[in-house]
Amino acid sequence: MESIIAYLTKNKETISTMESATGGYLASSITNISGSSLVFSYGAVTYSNKFKIKMGVNKDIIDKYSVYSMECANSMSKTITDFTNSDYGVGVTGKINDPDPNNLTGDNSLVYLSLYDKKKEKYYTKIIKVLNQERVLNKEFIKNEFIKLFKENIMKEL
């Protein structure tokens, strides 16, 4: 994560997160790094559908594709980018080996990760299969997948 913070700082760019499945783990991982206040704009934990919608995720996307979908993750990443006027937005939704009685659809071990690049108006996405039983290990795995996604798509020119 340090290299991402250094990259954003060097390029005077910002990032924000809207997290559901990871419950703020990415935001916490970013803010654990000294100097992150220069690049981290905002982190929203929108665990419920109600608050995803209040933040700006279109209810029709959730109704049509489910809250556990790449369409929802993409909407989350763009919504948080627009809300904060950040250069990049991250959206994370899915289930971490736990059924959701409020949202019965979807695989209980799939997480949808979306990184939105405002300048290019482009989404970079990854579907992650979580395999660990311990939630914190799954969140760490998702964080590492986010780091790979960012480096492969945003920092690739380095």
Question: Which descriptors would you attach to this protein?
Answer:
alpha/beta; Maf protein; 158 residues; 5-stranded mixed beta sheet; 5 strands; 22% strand; 41% helix; 6 helices; globular
Outline the structure in words:
This protein is of the alpha/beta class. The chain has a single domain, classed as Maf protein. It has helices spanning 2-10, 25-31, 49-55, 59-65, 70-84, 135-153; strands spanning 15-19, 40-45, 88-94, 110-117, 122-129. The protein has a five-stranded mixed sheet. It starts with a helix and ends in a 5-residue tail after the last helix.
The helix-and-strand class reads: alpha/beta
**What do the pLDDT scores average to?**
92
Quaternary organization: single chain
Q: Identify the CATH class.
A: Alpha Beta
Distance between the termini: 16 Å
Portion in strands: 15-25%
CATH homology superfamily name: CinA-like
Q: Can you list the strand order of the major beta sheet?
A: 2-1-3-4-5
CATH level-3 fold name: Maf protein
